[in-house]
Amino acid sequence: MMNSSLLFNSLAHSPFHLNEARRQWVQATFAALSNDEKIGQTLLPLLPDLEQASLDAVLRVPVGGVFRMHQGPLAALQQSARYLQARSKLPLLMPGDLEYVENGAIGQGAMLSNQLALAATHNTRLLADAARIAALEGRNAGYNWSFSPIVDLSIHPRNPIVCTRSFGSDPEQVAELGARYIASMQQHGMAACAKHWPGDGMGDTDQHLLLSENPLSFERWQETYGAIYRRMIDGGVLSVMSAHISLPSVDASGAPASLSAKLNLDLLREQLGFAGVIVSDASTMAGMTSQAKRADLVAACIENDCDILLFPEDVEADFNHLKTALREGRLSQQRLDAAVLRILALKAALGLAETRVEAVPFDAAAHAETARDIAQGCLTLLRDDAQILPLSPQKYPRVLLIQPQRRDTILGAGATLQIASLLQAQGFAVTPFTTGMQISPALFDLVLVTTADEAALCKAYIGIDWQNLQPGLHHAMQRFWHDIPTVFISLGNPYQAQEVAQCPTVILGYCPSAPIQEALVQALMGNIPFLGKNPVRLEIKATVEF
Q: DSSP class of residue 291?
């Protein structure tokens, strides 16, 4: 383990690249901190809302940063950032999951699409533009650190948490796109974070619900996830998120990376050479909380080379757990000091010693145009063996639309898809599916089956839920493509195509964002081409040999 004086001397090098003035700020700030203030720097709580009482409560402990959800109104995000930064003794890290999922716009700004949709465009300019937009719009909303990109591999067809959040199943592609994304994001002033170390996507579990495992041999891990992380580190990524995922081929104890010095210190730092900040994944996840008592977990996380404990369950309680651990020797002074030096170095690298929060100008219309370009570029025609496309109201006037009846997530109900109204505006007579309805070629000229299952926390399953599409015992078992021309459209998990292998026409859209829905209808009608290429290997089965 590097001592604090050697670590300080390394801050001029990758990934922080601090000049003399910033190094002196780190040194002077560090020297003035009490141990209580040092402990506070390692805590990064989740702000549940932007109410005044919540803003005040989160600063009762001298925390190193505050995480805010980014989908709220821009003015509220900006005001909360200014308020928190003005009342903190030290500048705050202000991270967010600046991933673009269906409802992922930052401060109601540009509606980009998820990482798998970006990968499907096979357009690295659009990918770099997406990272730039996330950086500029994020900074304008008061963020300075994005917990992205995800550099996991979408390997297991039933994995509910990686899938559409990744750049695909090919390690070389994930490494290339991840490095480009990080370079663009950090070039535009936003710290990036490669996650989820040591690599997710191999199984069908979600670390929010239970400890996940990466089962690869060390040799195969080196060729896949190891090669990806080497590329991120060589590219200067400022942070890595250590997840509640075990890698038994390295740490036979089965401990998650968030609690494993063998994975964080021996492998990530010493073997791969990562010198930036390691942040744990959320410490409230069952993948961590299932392992031991809270007081022991909190200390073990920092002692085993995570610099930041993400989402303390109770900030003051976890602060006291760390104080007790330091006093009892379960958390060493050397580890605490090293963590704080890296945290201060990240703040210095972001220029927070000079400017804590600032308005960032950008071209909103140009960002919206990029969102449309991504939407149009990702749509993938997997097959049209029945030569149904293009659609027209003259050819298929009466359309039966089968889509999710409910769009429930752990964060609330999702928006109703807009495909029906978009088709109606083009002159189609659209009938949404209802339980008990009669379905025959005499009544309908075309069936559109549309799913919208992005990867998401605590979702557990993102296969086709036929009971949600066609409720009722009889209807759930019906398939119409041999009797009525049918198009299956996945606006989410592309592996769902494996479940409709007999359907002759299949389209992949990867994300149910509004721009993708709009582009989908235009592509269905032949007004724009299908340009996308599927980034995942559909021949991979649920029992993975990788």
A: S
* Other C-beta atoms lying within 10 Å of the C-beta of residue 123: 18
Full-prediction pTM beyond 0.85? Answer: yes
Active site residues: 281
Contacts 24+ apart (CB under 8 A), 314-320: 315/43, 315/45, 315/58, 315/60, 315/61, 315/63, 316/60, 316/61, 318/43, 318/283, 318/294, 319/39, 319/40, 319/43, 319/61
pLDDT value of residue 188: 98
Interatomic CA distance for residues 186 and 22, integer angstroms? 17
Give the sign of the dihedral formed by CA 248, CA 254, CA 257, CA 261: negative
Tokens 């719009």, located at residue: 137
Burial pattern 191-229, b for ≥16 Cβ within 10 A else e, equals bbbbbbbbbbbbbbbbbbbebbbbebeeeebbebbbebb
* pLDDT for res 508: 98
Tokens representing 246 are 């075990």
Asked whether the bond before 91 is cis by omega within 30 degrees of 0, the reply is: no
> Taking a C-beta distance cutoff of 8 angstroms, is the pair 38, 333 a contact?
no
DSSP letter, residue 400: E
pLDDT at 408: 75
All residues at 6 or more sequence positions from 164 whose CB lies less than 8 Å from its CB, including other chains: 101, 114, 115, 116, 117, 154, 454, 455, 492, 493, 494, 510, 511
> Residue 432: CA atoms inside 13 Å, Cβ hemisphere, count?
12
Q: Which amino acid, 75?
A: A
What's the confidence (pLDDT) of residue 430?
Answer: 98
Task: List, as own/partner pairs, every contact residues 387-394 make where C-beta atoms lie below 8 angstroms and the sequence separation is at least 24, other chains included.
Answer: 388/446, 388/485, 388/486, 388/487, 388/504, 388/505, 389/487, 389/505, 389/524, 389/526, 390/524, 390/525, 390/526, 391/428, 391/446, 391/487, 391/524, 391/525, 391/526, 392/525, 393/426, 393/427, 393/428, 393/429
DSSP one-letter string for 232-260: HHHTT-SEEEEPSEE-TTT-TT---GGG-
pLDDT for 541 = 60
Question: Cα-flanking dihedrals φ and ψ of residue 258, to 5°?
Answer: -60, -15
What is residue 457's predicted lDDT score, i.e. its pLDDT?
A: 80
Tokens, residue 178: 């991840």
AA identity, residue 139: R
By residue count, the chain amounts to 546
Q: Name the nearest CA neighbour of 254 among 335, 298, 198.
A: 198
**Residue 92 confidence (pLDDT):** 98
CA 516 – CA 379 distance, rounded (Å): 8
CB 453 within 8 A of CB 462: yes
C-beta separation of 66 from 47 below 8 A = yes
Residue 441 is predicted with a pLDDT of 97
pLDDT < 50 positions in the chain: 544
